[in-house]
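Progress against Task 2.4 (sequence-to-structure conversion) is shown through the following example record, which the project officer requested during the mid-term review.
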Amino acid sequence: MKNGLIVTLLAFLIITGCANYGGQLTRNQVLQLDPEADLIELEDGSVYKHGTGWIDEKNLTRGEKIGVIKKGMATKLPNGASIYEVNESYPILMVEYEGETKRYLLAQGE
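Structure tokens generated for the chain above:
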């Protein structure tokens, strides 16, 4: 009986430990945490999320254009929106479309 309880507790800890999000998050992980997330998934699988307040306060300059939004890449951006790196050393992208600029931070767990 005691061994069965220990095995059950260990299995529970292992299973719940797998739910922790460390490192870069996937599209599914971001959407699991926030089903309404405004995100971009690049071809390399990197996911960037809009809505992190502090990045709007940073004085960032638009860098090199790295692509455009294509069907299925983003949850809220229109196809054809331009994606830019920033010149500063932050994992942030800028997206421009229809005269609007939005900033997206690399989605990372703790």
